[in-house]
Amino acid sequence: MTARKPNDAATAAHERLFPGHVSTLAVTDPELIEYFDNFAFDEVLRHTGAVDERTRLMTQLAAMISVGAVAEYRVMLGAALSVGVTPVEAKEIVYQAVPYADMARVFDFLHATNDVLTDRGIELPLAGQSTTSPETRMEQGLAVQKRIVGDQPVDAMYANAPTDEQHIQEFLSGNCFGDHYTRDGIDVPTRELLTFAMLAALGGADAQVKGHVAANLHVGNTRASLLAVLSGLLPFIGYPRTLNALAAVDAVIPADGAPARKNHP
């Protein structure tokens, strides 16, 4: 039987990300690894040029948190660090996942991240990145929420929430945005790409994916960058979730690049 190996482009990309690493799966499952590596590390990468390599890897790490892939995350975190993702950025990806993927899921990834960083001789804790205090988080969070989502939608969420649900809106402003989006270490446009990746990978969050397609547009990201992110995620989150996220992109930013028109009664 002829040995099955990934093509030259996939092999070169794999070696760049995982220098000197020989996958045990290449021995036990050579056919799968041949076509998976050709797909994920060659064919797919031809369609991710609208985001740089570091950003692509950061969004892939974010998606792996959402799907609960701890083992794959460890491997890809090593690759990300090897090509220039900083320890601070790595930690910020994990922190950013808490309000979206939930702390119960993120807990294992936080420990995995700490393990990988410690193994590389990086002393923890890292320098703090918080820019708010308990006294300012609500005001600053509401400001960045409106920057990302828009004044009118945020005001409408508060106005339309029943009295006994107002605290949830305040949680969104003070915690989701005030505690997380205001942090240093990763800029807001990149954080929005991470959130988009996390929500697409979660599945069952179609309304939120659509909302954050619009949010990405508000902070300067484009249809091209969102499609590049989804192309890079596809090998790791599968076709159903990718196609659902594509539907959200098409609904908000049609192929001509213009925001979708809203139908008003």
From TrEMBL:
Residues 30-114, 168-250 form the Carboxymuconolactone decarboxylase-like domain. Gene3D superfamilies: AhpD-like (1.20.1290.10). This is Carboxymuconolactone decarboxylase family protein. It comes from Streptomyces phaeochromogenes. The lineage of its organism: Bacteria, Bacillati, Actinomycetota, Actinomycetes, Kitasatosporales.
